[in-house]
Specification:
Two copies of one chain form a homodimer.
Chain A (H helix, E strand, L loop, with lengths): L2 H10 E7 L4 E3 L7 E7 L2 E6 L5 E7 L4 E2 L1 H5 L6 E4 L3 E7 L3 H7 L1 H27 L2 H18 L7 E3 L4 H8 L3 H13 L3 E4 L2 E4 L2 H7 L14
Antiparallel strand pairs in A: 1-8, 2-7, 3-6, 3-8, 4-5, 4-7, 9-11, 10-11
Helix pairs in contact in A: 3-4, 5-7, 5-8, 6-7
The first copy, chain A, binds a DNA duplex through helix 7.
Keywords (chains A, B): DNA-binding, Transcription, Transcription regulation
Organism (chains A, B): Litorisediminicola beolgyonensis
InterPro entries (chains A, B): cNMP-bd_dom, cNMP-bd_dom_sf, HTH_CRP, RmlC-like_jellyroll, WH-like_DNA-bd_sf, WH_DNA-bd_sf
Chain lengths: 224, 224
DNA sequence: CGTGCCATTGAGCCGGTTCAAAGCCGGTGG
DNA sequence: CCACCGGCTTTGAACCGGCTCAATGGCACG
């Protein structure tokens, strides 16, 4: 970054913030003045239905930008919650527009990020809409594994994955019971095993094959 | 627009183009040098699985931007096809970056569009993942109706909707048969009826209630 | 030592799927 | 002018993947 960019980021960045597990960061309908970047910890992005059903849209990992929607549109259309303790970098939404005027390459990155999230949701939609429970699950696990691997969180053959089975079930539109049973099958077949907040994958290739994962690692994400 | 903007758009816009029904506009994996805006006609955005299953991601209506993903990322991750004859405005992808440098407000619009599409996919994911067939269908029909209404295509109580039931089924992750039977129920209940390429809604309020649609009309979309 | 959250497992059921067949066009060629 | 064909919609019937209900067990915490 240039000096000028640094100076701008100084103004754009408000500060840092640490939150407890379970803290709601942004809520549906809110018009928050803040945008965050996750520095550490894990979170969930989800939508609720009036009767309590929940759709998890994505898991939030370190490096992810949070609240771009609220930044660029009027208001938030989904909720964001910290699953573990999280450290966040806080940005001032009001400076977003001046970023577009003065730092086009950063602006371009933002479009890239939004576009990349759209791409992910398209994949998720395809998984939920078309794939069987086993296929979706394998898709989700391999996707998560690849991303955490790219974040350099791989230790041995396992990555941290501190969520409940209910969270994954809500992400895949499956029931908790069926998610549990399908996970058990993957474990029995010695392909992948998720316990105690860690996901171990012993046969990634087969996992991706089951999940009908289309080639290639996920694209690298510019940091904001 | 200012003169300067007009001059730029002149360079950015390559020309116009008309395509036949069924023409593929962009394909998965392609790295197309073009970005389009639909001027008239209808299209589909979808992903295919290796075994032929298809997930429709969204319907493309006049005014929609096509191919932003290919523009901003390396390559396309879904297919786009013209359902009816379409008239398109063609832009030069290579000028995209200079747009960011010289026209920040247009750049902002692009992020807005990408973000808005992400928002839509999140809603779709929630419909497919959590809602019953009847709920999803009502959601989809009311969504489509609202959008076409906003495009000023409402005549009487009906809007054009020139797709096959199979297309809608693939969008909602339902079988063709069940989609048909669920549509029949909405027709019997005198709520909405879709035939001969037109969707008539006689009780929009009830349709949105069944579909668990959260308030408000969809946000207006900046034209590119 | 109780209490609550989460994972696990069994049993029965149901919303939605698959299979199959028939009806309804509009287009085409004889 | 009519017979035929292909794409789409409609309807009936049987089946099944995944859901719901229910109970148990492990573990952390007060």
């Amino acid at each position: 970054m240039t000096d000028q960019e640094l100076a701008f980021m100084e103004r754009f960045k408000i500060g840092e913030m640490t939150v407890e597990p379970g803290t709601p960061l942004l809520s549906e309908g809110a018009n928050s003045p803040q945008i965050f970047t996750a520095l550490s910890g894990f979170g969930l992005r989800f939508k609720m239905l009036p009767d309590g059903r929940r759709q998890v849209l994505s898991m939030i990992f370190p490096g992810d930008l949070i609240g771009l929607q609220a930044g660029v549109m009027r208001e938030m259309t989904h909720n964001i919650e910290a699953t573990t303790a999280m450290k966040l970098c806080v940005f001032n939404r009001n400076e977003l527009w001046s970023l577009y005027k003065t730092h086009p390459s950063r602006a371009y990155d933002l479009t890239w990020i939004a576009s990349s999230e759209e791409r992910f949701l398209g994949e998720a939609l395809t998984a939920i809409g078309q794939k069987s429970a086993m296929e979706s699950l394998a898709w989700a696990l391999s996707r998560v594994f690849r991303r955490l691997e790219a974040l350099d969180m791989l230790e041995g053959n396992s990555v941290p994955l501190p969520y409940r089975q209910q969270d994954l079930a809500d992400a895949l539109g499956l029931s908790l019971v069926h998610t549990n049973k399908t996970l058990a099958k993957l474990r029995e077949r010695q392909i992948a095993s998720w316990a105690d907040g860690r996901l171990s994958v012993s046969d990634l290739e087969q996992l991706e094959e089951i999940g009908l994962v289309e080639g290639g690692p996920p694209p690298a994400r510019p940091l904001m």
